[in-house]
Amino acid sequence: MCGIIGINSNKPVSATIINSLKKLEYRGYDSAGIATLSSGLINEIKSEGRVDNLEKNSLVQSMQGTIGIGHVRWATHGLPNSINAHPHSSQNVSVVHNGIIENSTLLKKFLVGKGHKFKSQTDTEVIVHLITENLKSDDIINSIKKTLKSLHGSFALGIIFKDQPDLIVGARRGSPLAVGYGPNENYLGSDSYALKSMTNKITYLNDGEFCIIKKDHVEFFNEDGVKINKKILQLSSEEKEYEKGDYKHFMAKEIEEQPITLKNGIKEYIDTVNNDINIYNIPWKQNEISSITLIGCGTAYHSCLMSKYWFEELTSLEVNVDIASEFRYRKNRFKKDTLYVFVSQSGETADTYAALDLCNKNGMKTCSVVNVIESSIARDSEFVLPIHCGTEIGVASTKAFLGQILILYILALKFGSVRGDLEKKELSEKLKDLKNLPKLVEETLATDNKIQNVSSTFNEAKGSMFLGRGFSYPIALEGALKLKELSYIHAEGYPAGEMKHGPLALIEDGMPVVVLAPRDNYYKKTISNMQEVIARGAKVLLITNKSSDEIISENIWETIEVESTNDDLLPFLLTIPLQKLAYYSALKKGFDIDKPRNLAKSVTVE
Ligand code: F6R
Questions:
Q1: Residue 375 phi/psi, 5° resolution?
Q2: Among protein residues, the one whose CA lies closest to atom 3 of ligand 1
Q3: Is residue 236 very low, low, confident or very high in pLDDT (cuts 50, 70, 90)?
Q4: pLDDT tens-digit map of 125-183
Q5: Are the beta carbons of 202 and 233 closer than 8 angstroms?
Q6: Is 211 a residue of the active site?
């Protein structure tokens, strides 16, 4: 949520800031802004909408200054307009902020009493005036220290000062922030992705830390203003810039990349020589764990739910799944023999991080399944399993979902085998099938004409339903989420067996309903539920897997057949047509596929 960039250089910075903001746009895109220091003044330019709008402003093109900050916004306080866009500035100080200041109303009252005038509806503006106020009596370090201590809530900040034309201040509590090092220039950014085109040398700030960025060096401080040393990390060459190439959208590219995601995960975690699983460094003994709780948000929550079925099938563990925003505020009964697993693509989702933090504070065993290995969730978990799917830019998660469920499946196999719940022969057969999965996903990806055609029907409907049982139920939820977020069509994911307990009342003539009925243990039951919705007028799109057995049902509107494999792995294949359905529906509607309305990629606010 919101992206921050700062550059301190000996060359003009505005064009580079704009380019970096374009990279950060996946974090928020309702408004954008830039501030530089030139001729002894702070110049601030902001616009509503995308970074393109800001770039078109002729004043930006002629903007001078070798030091500056920029921001893309995802609104929390105040409408998404140019007044509320960041940076927010007084005569002396300009600030960009990612996060939420929870005590802004009280602070504003205090500052108004001191004569400060506010222009926007944002919580951020209090930071500007608080620093301005503190600078009246303190030096820069003390005024920053004092300001940060007064703020409740979460923040990543970039700050420039009229009277300190050689430095940028960065500060972090709760929201991610990185420092980058270049030749005669240094940078501040919400993530390494925004900095990658400029440097591969990065330092991540921890909670409570702040820094002073000069052109030739960077100093770090703890929350008490005491200088600290921090490591410079070298990003691997694998993490080079991620571009769209010939694809129309990042999402289309990311869907097509899924066989590679699976190949990478299998290469990393499967020992093909010994036919075993390459996870040897689990820091706990198996007799110390008797249950597992999986926690995430959105698509990552669906990954958790998916893996519940596998953990229950393959291990003797008790399995619970939780939505992070619920878990963090509930009265949890923490149990020493529970392993808490946090699933997150970005590794920065505020609710998931808070749930992890709560578990750490209660001395629990914590493990994370993340894509961004330098993220806060990865850094603060005892044990990390990266999914290695590369940068994911499309706001709607696709390859990260498949990457997450792959690693969770492998973890379930590992636990099943070391606990003696899964026989060696069974493990070996399952690993053999798994090695073939990337090829099957590739083949499933190759069939898509039907999906393009049926997507029009979903676009014309008032709403739609996605039904599945067993392994297919979490995939139904994920399919419905994808359609909602990309095409803005009401879509409900439901366990097929639950329809008769209420939702069947929603079915009316011509309503499109996706039924996931692969030829697994649940097949016959799901087909019966499918007939119940067909009988009430639904237009059923049946997604099943190829088989020599005929489908015994009448009046199915359309059928899509994915490749066949063992029951455990069918969810991977069923996911593909659902991702494509959402993609083509949004494409036909002309919506912004990589940046759906009201959303952002990395949700670093509650
Ligand atoms: C939906 C989607 C979101 C994320 C959720 C958690 O397509 O991408 O629902 O899954 O915001 O994000 P991470 O995985 O970064 O914690």
A1: -75, 165
A2: 298
A3: low
A4: 999 999 999 999 999 999 999 999 999 998 999 999 999 999 999 999 988 899 999 99
A5: yes
A6: no
Q: How far is the CA of 375 from the centre of ligand 1 (A)?
A: 14
CA-derived radius of gyration, the chain: 26
- Residues 263/440, Cβ–Cβ less than 8 Å: no
Alpha-carbon distances of 370 from 379, 380, 408, 605, rounded to whole Å: 10, 12, 11, 18
* 240: confidence class by pLDDT, cuts 50, 70, 90: low
Q: Which residues contact 520 (CB under 8 A, 6 or more apart)?
A: 470, 471, 472, 567, 570
pLDDT one-digit tens code per residue, 453-475: 999 999 999 999 999 999 999 99
Q: Which fold has domain 245-435?
A: Rossmann fold (3.40.50)
Strand, helix or coil at 203?
strand
Which pLDDT belongs to residue 241? 67
Pocket of ligand 1 (CB under 6 A): 297-300, 344-346, 349, 352, 396-397, 481, 485, 603
- Whether 2 sits among the annotated catalytic residues: the reply is yes
Query: Rounded to whole angstroms, how far apart are CA atoms 67 and 327?
Result: 42
CA of 380 to the centre of ligand 1 (A): 19
Give CA separation, 72 vs 32, 54, 232, in Å: 4, 10, 26
- Does the 446-606 domain belong in CATH 3.40.50.10490? yes
Convert the pLDDT of each residue in 560-599 to its tens digit: 999 999 999 999 999 999 999 999 999 999 999 999 998 9
Q: What residue spans in the chain does CATH classification 3.60.20.10 cover?
A: 3-234
Output the pTM of the full model. 0.86
Q: Which is the closest atom of ligand 1 to the Cα of 349?
A: 16
Report in angstroms the alpha-carbon separations of 94 from 44, 72, 176.
Answer: 8, 15, 19
Q: What is the pLDDT of residue 237?
A: 59
Tokens of 278: 């390459």
CATH number for 3-234: choose from 3.65.10.10, 3.60.20.10, 3.40.50.2300, 2.60.120.260. 3.60.20.10
Instruction: State the DSSP string of 135-187.
Output: TTTS-HHHHHHHHHHH--EEEEEEEEETTEEEEEEEEEEBS--EEEEETTEEE
Q: Is 437 exposed, middle or buried (0-12, 13-18, 19+ CB in 10 A)?
A: buried
How confident is the model over 219-237, as a mean pLDDT? 90
